[in-house]
Amino acid sequence: MIERLAMLLLIAALLSLGWHGLRWRSLRLARAAPLPPEAVQALAGANTAILYFWTASCAQCRSLQTPALRQLERELHPAVAVVPIDAAARSELSARFGIITVPATVIIDQGGVRSVNLGYTSAAVLREQLNRATPTQL
Amino acid sequence: MVDQNALRFNQAMIVSLIGLAFVLNIPWLSALVAALMLIGTAWPGLAAFQLFYRRVLLPAGLLRPSPRQEDPAAPRFAQGLGGSFLLLAVVAFALGATTLGWALNLIVVALALINLLFDFCLGCFIYFQLERAGVLGKIRAAR
After folding, report:
1. What is the pLDDT of residues A61-101, one digit of tens each?
2. How many interchain CB pairs under 8 A, A with B?
3. Which CATH superfamily is domain A2-133 in?
């Protein structure tokens, strides 16, 4: 019984480690990647931008991530701009940013990439990340 | 409309019960979870964990509903997939392939756990990878 419990805990630990490893890899790749032109343009008018990777087939994008980002945009416009990117149509750009799933969000400011989120991220978590990126302007 | 807390409770119950079945070596508990999941997929009104959530936890005020606009087909598909894996595990147990049976159980636990803890949508991931590899485009073109 103890061995099985240990095995279960090990699986949970490996999953957690794997997940955080993937996020770290994405952050590293995103920091090394040149920003797409629409992100550079968005940063000309806003302090911070959120690159939003989505695809037409992604239900979670439509039902959860898009409404969360719209809410943030309404609250924080013009300090924050959301830049939607069709991850399927621009797979090379997605790969450069280490995007392995959708929805995914990347927070950038004048200093570069601050955070990368793989999977749905709530408005509350994004707000916290934005605050950390440019606390004085929000 | 989908209640996110009902989904989370469902995933938590699956992880807990299969985890318990594995730790205490009780294959019938895994078979019971498989049956509950498959019944819940075929007849959503009879989904046992959701019924417990709606009839016991919500009225008792232990959990609060968190409804969101979402297609209920996606979580139902995921539940059906998980239930099918567990059904295969039951067949493996019946044929004496215990290791394979528990391996299938652990796959279901792992997938439910990453969904529960990290909000990671496996369906979205698979679709995205297929789309990126151009497989979905070829299928659409063939139709």
Report:
1. 888 899 999 999 999 888 999 999 999 889 889 999 999 88
2. 83
3. Glutaredoxin (3.40.30.10)
